[in-house]
């Protein structure tokens, strides 16, 4: 049996390597790529991963072929990391492991997220070959980036490694065209990176803190989407139990009670996320100039910020059946915009 600390370290390393595997292939396919990981606040560490993540990329540059290869890259990166040496790993072994893990339905698939499993449907040996070459040829860099994610996430609870292009784009938005200040920040970042390289064999990329500025971070977007999916899953299960009871079947009181507790916990997590994002928005807005606050961008930001100044209701009908109240909170969460709209 592993201790909670050992499970934590194991899940953190797997999450980092998994997302860096995705990012390796998205970048190889010309889609950019920012791997992100964060701590999963759960008490059920025996059934749920303690660290989860996502990889942001340019959707406009994607194709079905590219996305299929991206989907299998996370799983294959995890499998490759289990070998003592990269030379011990071969395509045929990876193919066998992928086949054995990929079930006919999602519930039969171990080691996959639902999005990866759905995206990987129809994979071929050519896909495995392309991903295998991309991962193994850049394996040292992939492990270095994963180490950066692990180092930052273990201290702060979340981390994201941006490509230089995305880092520059984010800074350009924050400095809103002030080129001298932007150049100074970029010079400082590059000098810091060169200094780090002189002290360590690793090559950590620029890490952008998980704090809302002019739009939601990749991590916050993923958290919001994951919470909405989890709420829907709990609601559907509870309504199914209630529906069976309405048709004359057994009403499983303990099952409903357990699902209700899960629902309340998810609503609390969602409200905590909403409050954190709203406070970050307020902090950012209050530090801007009066001229910017009164500008078109500033007014759009204020409207965006006001939409996040809500709290999801947690009330539920006792029966979970018939009125649709259960879906109100999920709808409110889904409708919160990821960025200002002018």
What would your notes on this structure say?
The protein has 342 residues and is mostly helical. It has helices spanning 4-28, 64-81, 91-101, 114-119, 125-137, 139-156, 164-175, 179-199, 218-246, 253-286, 290-293, 296-307, 328-334; strands at 34-39, 51-56, 158-160. The protein has a three-stranded antiparallel beta sheet with strand order 2-1-3, with helices on both faces.
User: Percent of residues in beta strands?
Assistant: under 5%
Mean pLDDT: 80
User: Could you spell the SSE succession in H and E letters?
Assistant: HEEHHHHHEHHHHHHH
Low-confidence segments, given as residue ranges, are 188-212
Helical fraction:
55-70%
> Based on the structure, what is the oligomeric state of the protein chains?
single chain
Helix- and strand-based class? mainly alpha
Main sheet makeup: 3 strands, antiparallel
Total strand count, please?
Answer: 3
* Count of separate DSSP helical elements: 13
How would you summarize this macromolecular structure in one to three sentences?
With 342 residues, this protein is mostly helical.
């Amino acid at each position: 049996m592993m201790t909670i600390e050992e499970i934590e370290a194991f899940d953190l390393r797997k999450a980092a390597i998994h997302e860096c595997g995705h990012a390796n292939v998205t970048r190889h396919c010309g889609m950019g790529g920012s791997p992100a990981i964060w701590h999963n606040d759960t008490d059920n560490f025996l059934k749920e991963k303690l660290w989860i993540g996502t990889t942001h990329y340019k959707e406009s540059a994607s194709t079905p072929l590219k996305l299929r290869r991206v989907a299998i890259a996370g799983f294959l990166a995890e499998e490759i990391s289990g070998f003592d040496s990269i030379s011990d790993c071969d395509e045929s072994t990876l193919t066998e492991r992928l086949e054995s893990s990929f079930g006919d339905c999602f519930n039969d698939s171990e080691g996959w997220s639902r999005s990866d499993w759905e995206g990987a449907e129809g994979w071929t040996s050519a896909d495995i070959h392309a991903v295998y070459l991309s991962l193994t040829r850049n394996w040292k860099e992939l492990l270095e980036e994963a180490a950066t994610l692990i180092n930052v996430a273990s201290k702060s609870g979340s981390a994201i490694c941006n490509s230089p292009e995305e880092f520059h784009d984010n800074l350009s938005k924050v400095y809103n065209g002030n080129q001298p200040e932007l150049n100074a920040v970029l010079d400082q970042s590059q000098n810091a990176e060169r200094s780090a390289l002189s002290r360590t064999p690793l090559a950590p990329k620029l890490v952008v803190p998980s704090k809302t500025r002019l739009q939601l971070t990749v991590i916050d977007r993923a958290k919001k989407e994951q919470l909405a999916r989890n709420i829907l899953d709990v609601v559907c299960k509870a309504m199914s139990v209630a529906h069976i009871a309405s048709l004359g079947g057994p009403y499983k009181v303990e099952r409903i009670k357990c699902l209700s507790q899960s629902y309340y916990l998810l609503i609390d997590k969602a409200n905590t996320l909403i409050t954190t994002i709203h406070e970050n928005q307020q902090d950012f807005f209050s530090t801007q100039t009066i001229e910017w606050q009164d500008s078109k961008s500033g007014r759009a930001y204020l409207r965006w910020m006001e939409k996040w100044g809500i709290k999801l209701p947690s009330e539920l009908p006792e029966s979970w059946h018939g009125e649709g109240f259960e879906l109100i909170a999920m709808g409110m969460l889904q409708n919160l915009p990821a960025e200002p709209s002018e």
